[in-house]
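Work Package 3 (structural annotation) set out to generate three-dimensional models for the target panel prioritized at the project kickoff. During this period the team completed the workflow that converts sequence records into discrete structure tokens, so that structures can be stored uniformly alongside our sequence database. As a representative example, we reproduce one entry of 304 residues exactly as it appears in the project archive.
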Amino acid sequence: MPTWIKSVLGTLAISVSVAANGTAFAQSDGERDDRSSDLRGEVSASAIIASDRGDEEDNDRSGARLRAELDYQQDVGPGEIRLGYDSSVYFYEDGDRPDQWTNRLSLAYAVDVAQDLELSAQVSYASNLSTLEFRSADQVETMGTVEYSPGRHRLRLFGGWRWRDYDDEAQSEGSGAIYGVGYRYRLARSRFLSAGIRFEDIDSGNPRRGYERTTLEAYYQQPLASRSRLRLGAVARFWDFDGRLTPDGDRRRDSSVTPEIDLLHGFASGFLLQGRLQYGLRSSNDPAFRADDQRAILTAGYKF
């Protein structure tokens, strides 16, 4: 990873800390800033029960996860600066797999250039990230977004580039584009339909790290009560690896279709409960990677 990128990300980490602490002190002292700003956070704990197929790119394993998120927004000139920090620890049930601590920092600037039209640019850094192609990587990502939101509609176009350093014996590196489009239609309060498609590519000098993947997703959310939501959805993924071959010597190609049910209940105090069920229908031209996978997640959290 280039040294200048690491320097910028180090400055970003300090900025996130100063912004969050400064706002917290102002709130505790009862002072108000004349500028428009907002600090939000969430902490959560999740229990995961998964099929644990055991193939190397399966990141959905049984265990427990602790997570903390912090987001800060501040009006600056004609736009808004957004700072984010996300930290999570995954405790795997499998004693042979080391627990994983992942951290992510992000900095974005968004501006309204016309009625219902927003442009934004973001840079982020993630450490010890679990990815499709390897269980641990550091990543730098840049992303540009155009969002158009007239009335009940929201259309989002995005595109960016990612650089990854893998924590493998060869210290492999990879990079590639990510881009796509998403659409959401609001039927009523907390009730909407959404769909999207995303393309991503990683090129690497290590042929086992390179891949191309296409993801399609669709969701429907329905309120069940004033603080309860039901979400139904499905995600389809199609990917192939540059240097992973089947027993017949062909380039390996995989796909999966995963329906899911998500139930969320929030309390007035800020506490929330969430349950999610997923069933992945998987296919591959390599018989060793055709097994379906199942996943159940129960999450308890608190928003502030």
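The CA atoms of residues 73 and 82 lie 5 Å apart.
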